[in-house]
């Protein structure tokens, strides 16, 4: 690692670089899955999901680049091989599997939620253990983006649960309040 004097020890920098590379691996695997589902989705939801996933994989591509550049900023080298991504990733690949559109959405929700949980831990580690508030702030922005992507996907699945009258099955009906 080059001599970097930004107020963090070599050990702190190395810890941050390692957690950034784990996130980079997750982001890259999620990008691959999102693109694969974008290509393979079929059915009545095709257009909606095809366009939503294009928006999401474009955002993931930007986040991947920014994460790799953050690693370089701190004097490290980003993981950049499929083998490295698979070794470091906390989300699962599903090779040779072509799920339904709803299962694709559900799997991506699970992946985003796993990434969000990881980011929460990493934010605390950066701030508390490594005293790197800059990376903690950077990761907070990424976490917020994944929260929004997960919300969009969950909303799609929740829409499947509406009755023909637009109500959720099993939902309590609340009395109308007159004004």
CATH level 1 class label: Mainly Alpha
Radius of gyration: 20 Å
Give the tally of β-strands: 0
The appropriate CATH architecture is Up-down Bundle
CATH superfamily: Ferritin, core subunit, four-helix bundle
What order do the helices and strands follow?
HHHHH
Task: List the domain count as a whole number.
Answer: 1
> Which runs of at least 5 residues are low in confidence (pLDDT < 50)?
none
Largest sheet: none
End-to-end C-alpha gap: 67 Å
How many H/I helices? Answer: 5
| Main structural class | mainly alpha
How helical, in percent, are the residues? 55-70%
The global form is elongated
What share of residues are in beta strands? under 5%
Structure description:
The chain has 179 residues and is an all-alpha fold. It has a single domain, classed as Ferritin, CATH 1.20.1260.10. The protein is 68% helix and 0% strand. The longest helix has 31 residues, at 10-40. It is elongated, with a radius of gyration of 20 Å. The N and C termini lie far apart (67 Å).
């Amino acid at each position: 690692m080059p001599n970097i004097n930004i107020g963090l020890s070599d050990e702190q920098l190395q810890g941050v670089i390692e957690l950034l590379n784990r996130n980079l691996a997750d982001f890259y695997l999620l990008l691959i899955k999102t693109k694969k589902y974008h290509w393979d989705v079929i059915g009545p939801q095709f257009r909606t999901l095809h366009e939503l996933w294009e928006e999401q994989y474009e955002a993931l591509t930007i986040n991947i680049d920014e994460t790799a550049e953050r690693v370089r900023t701190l004097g490290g080298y980003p993981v950049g091989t499929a083998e490295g991504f698979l070794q470091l990733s906390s989300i699962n690949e599903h090779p040779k599997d072509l799920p339904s559109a709803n299962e694709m959405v559900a799997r991506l929700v699970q992946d985003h939620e796993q990434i969000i949980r990881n980011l929460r831990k990493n934010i605390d580690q950066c701030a508390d253990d490594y005293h790197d508030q800059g990376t903690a702030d950077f990761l907070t922005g990424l976490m917020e983006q994944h929260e929004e992507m997960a919300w969009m996907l969950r909303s799609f699945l929740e829409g499947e649960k509406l009755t023909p009258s637009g109500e959720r099955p099993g939902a309590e009906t609340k009395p109308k309040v007159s004004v």
